[in-house]
Amino acid sequence: MRKTTQQDNPEVRVDKWLWAARFYKTRRLANDAIQGGKIKLNGIKPKPAKAIKEGMLISIHLGGLERVFRVKALSNKRGPAALAQTLYEETPESMQLLAEFKENLKAGASIIRTDGRPSKKDRRLIHRFKQKNGNCY
Q1: How far apart are the C-alpha atoms of 13 and 8, rounded to whole Å?
Q2: Which pLDDT score, from 0 to 100, does residue 72 have?
Q3: How buried is residue 99: exposed, middle or buried, by Cβ count under 10 Å (0-12/13-18/19+)?
Q4: Residues 67-105: pLDDT tens digits?
Q5: Hey, what's the torsion of the CAs at 46, 67, 11, 5, to 10 degrees?
Q6: If you average pLDDT over residues 1-7, what whole number do you get?
Q7: N or C of the chain: less Cβ packing under 10 Å?
Q8: Strand-by-strand arrangement of the 57-62 sheet
Q9: What are the residues whose beta carbons fall under 8 Å from the beta carbon of 124, sequence distance 6 or more?
Q10: Where are the domains of the chain?
């Protein structure tokens, strides 16, 4: 019996490729992401066993942002991170959206900051304010 190599079978399962490209730590997490609708292959929601080919576009919903990658190479084995990064390239539109998302996140983070829980004095003031305005709980 002969071993199959990547030249014999130029297709790899989507869940294996996501795991090998280090988008997910385990194949189970990759599988769950696919079944949860967080992954799209050329704009279509695939099944975990769907074969992926070079040149396909894969959209991954990560951290509130949808990122799009083009498959450059196939691998069904997980290797070092440097090798995993050669399996894909991010589209320029996706990189631009990521940069904008980071800018918005930075700008919004400074607005949301608080000093923590209100002190006892602050709570009394809040309670008095609510009573005066008829918004008592």
Answers
A1: 15
A2: 94
A3: exposed
A4: 999 999 999 899 999 999 999 999 999 999 999 888 887
A5: -140
A6: 42
A7: N
A8: 39-41, 57-62, 65-71, 88-90
A9: none
A10: 1-92
